[in-house]
């Protein structure tokens, strides 16, 4: 803190942003000058993960500070009443501590207008099939961006963000079809600027900026798309284990989760994805300038992350939910301006194993607020402020997701990653230091047997006593029934 003032806190979340997709992280194609600058002002966590890498369970971890075992969502499921499932939330704790709390952009909760501790929500979730069907396509009550869009000069009364028909899980790529200032990415930043103008100046604020992109549709402005269409081709990664998931293939399907695509389709989809990142990066820069103009830059903690990544054709896989780095690893940058004013070290890269459940305790500790005992995430604040080293964090991390009709389980200690599938019985081991693209499966390599046994034992320990029955007599069991909602949460929802 500076001058005795409590710091403002801004949590910026992009949707579906891969952990390696920062030029500061050495990505060969994408350029992110604003986020690189933000990282230079703080700490970039190079081993941060989303333990349940799809929107709904990942955001549950983000907003509750809880592991999937605790919040109860281990897969993607719509229609879960978050007011029952998540009674103690990050914005709620900030609000109770005297902060003005504001959310702008994607929430992806149900009911759609649930505030979960925010004083106000300016909502744009993007294309949610569940919400559209529930409301019969009548979007204005559940989408503040659409309400705003239809009132702009030259825009018709029934216009929306799906007019160009590029799908929310599709690789089909095309430039944005309206003026750039009407794009949802710009809208989030514009509403943030409006909040900064109209906030209560007597209170610190917690602001949640949640950009829907680079999640599909791949519809960046033309300038952003074109610069990556002209970039050198960057071929998807393929490993020696390609083929183990062939039972789930759908070659050529534009919304497939696994399949082969023509090279030109992949290249264009990558240009759309990277172009969306370039667009978001500049809009974050616009927000940071608005924050400076408001006189709050030097007393604001800024954290940037994503709910999950995007496989983008690596190993013929698209979208998310799988245990591999493209899906599960996320960017995590913390720029602690008050600590920087006090002389804390900056421009550091941390190898600590971070996870989305760590965001809540980290931000609360940096703001000097007590972390509630509902939280089982581990604060990264001491690493941010330079009072602890990376080894002081966790030794290993457990992740999972119900997908392809089974539970895809994984553990990593930062060096090795172990993958196990409850239905297919697939078992894999990767050396993330020597093989960060996970191209070589070491599960049958005798030289890696000790690592395999150690990681398998960690997963068994994580799953011991789980209601699905993943472990019996100390051994992993295949073929057990799985659900995206654990029984303890189901009981809460049924009672509610």
Separation of the first and last Cα atoms:
41 Å
Low-confidence stretches: none
The helix content is 25-40%
How would a crystallographer describe the biggest sheet?
Answer: 8 strands, mixed
Total number of helices: 16
Radius of gyration from CA coordinates: 22 Å
Q: Average pLDDT value? A: 95
Order of SSEs, N→C? EHEHHHHEEHHHEHHEHEHEHHEEEEHEEH
Shape: globular
Structural class of the secondary structure composition? alpha/beta
Largest sheet strand order: 4-3-5-1-6-7-2-8
Q: How many distinct beta strands? A: 14
Beta fraction:
15-25%
Structure, described:
By secondary structure, the protein is of the alpha/beta class. Helix content is 29%, strand content 17%. The protein has 16 helices and 14 strands. The strands form 3 sheets. It has an 8-stranded mixed beta sheet with strand order 4-3-5-1-6-7-2-8, sandwiched between helices. Strands 9-10-11-12 form a 4-stranded antiparallel beta sheet, with helices on one face. Strands 13-14 form a two-stranded antiparallel ribbon. A hairpin with a 5-residue loop joins strand 11 (416-421) and strand 12.
Short recap of the structure:
By secondary structure, this protein is an alpha/beta fold. The chain has helices at residues 33-40, 55-64, 68-71, 82-85, 90-96, 129-134, 144-149, 184-198, 222-229, 263-293, 325-328, 337-341, 359-366, 381-384, 449-463, 487-495; strands at 8-15, 43-49, 100-105, 120-123, 205-214, 300-306, 332-336, 348-355, 397-403, 406-412, 416-421, 427-431, 471-472, 475-476.
């Amino acid at each position: 803190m500076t001058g005795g003032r409590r710091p403002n806190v801004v949590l910026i979340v992009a949707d579906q942003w891969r952990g390696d997709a920062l030029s500061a992280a050495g990505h060969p194609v994408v350029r992110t000058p604003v986020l690189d600058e933000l990282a230079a002002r703080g700490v970039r966590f190079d081993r941060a993960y989303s333990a349940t890498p799809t929107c709904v369970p990942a955001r549950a971890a983000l907003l509750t500070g809880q592991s999937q075992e605790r919040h109860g969502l281990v897969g993607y499921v719509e229609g879960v009443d978050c007011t029952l499932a998540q009674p103690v939330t990050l914005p709620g704790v900030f609000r109770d501590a005297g902060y003005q709390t504001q959310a702008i952009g994607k929430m992806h909760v149900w009911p759609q207008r649930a505030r979960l501790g925010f004083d106000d929500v300016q909502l744009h979730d993007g294309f949610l099939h569940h919400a559209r069907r529930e409301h019969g396509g009548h979007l204005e009550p559940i989408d503040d961006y659409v309400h705003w869009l239809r009132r702009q000069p030259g825009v018709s009364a029934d216009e929306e963000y799906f007019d160009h028909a590029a799908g929310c899980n599709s690789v089909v790529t095309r430039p944005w079809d309206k003026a750039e200032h009407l794009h949802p990415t710009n809208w989030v930043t514009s509403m943030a600027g409006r909040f900064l103008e109209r906030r209560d100046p007597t209170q610190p604020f917690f602001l949640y900026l949640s950009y829907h992109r680079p999640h599909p549709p791949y519809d960046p402005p033309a300038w952003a798309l074109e610069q990556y269409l002209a970039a050198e081709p960057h071929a998807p990664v393929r490993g020696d284990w390609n083929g183990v998931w062939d039972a789930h293939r759908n070659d050529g399907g534009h919304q497939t989760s696994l399949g082969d695509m023509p090279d030109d389709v992949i290249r264009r989809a990558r240009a759309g994805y990277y172009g969306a990142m370039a667009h978001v990066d500049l809009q974050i820069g616009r927000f940071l300038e608005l924050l400076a103009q408001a006189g709050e830059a030097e007393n604001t903690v800024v954290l940037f992350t994503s709910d999950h990544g995007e496989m983008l054709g690596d190993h013929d896989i698209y979208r998310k939910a799988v245990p591999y780095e493209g899906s599960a690893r996320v960017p995590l940058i913390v720029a602690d301006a008050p600590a920087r004013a006090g002389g804390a070290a900056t421009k550091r890269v941390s190898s600590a194993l971070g996870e989305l459940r760590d965001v809540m305790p980290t931000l609360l500790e940096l703001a000097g607020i007590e972390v509630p005992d509902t939280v089982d995430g581990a604060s990264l604040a001491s690493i941010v402020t330079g009072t602890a080293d990376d080894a002081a964090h966790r030794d290993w991390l457990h992740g999972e997701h119900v997908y392809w009709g089974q539970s895809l389980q994984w553990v990593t200690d930062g060096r090795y990653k172990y993958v196990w599938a409850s239905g297919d019985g697939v078992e894999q081991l990767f050396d993330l230091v020597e093989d960060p693209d996970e191209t070589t499966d070491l599960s049958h390599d005798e030289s890696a047997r000790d690592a395999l046994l150690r990681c398998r034992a960690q997963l068994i320990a994580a799953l011991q006593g789980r209601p699905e029955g993943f472990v019996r007599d100390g051994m992993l069991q295949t073929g057990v029934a799985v659900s995206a909602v654990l029984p303890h949460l189901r009981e809460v929802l049924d009672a509610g």
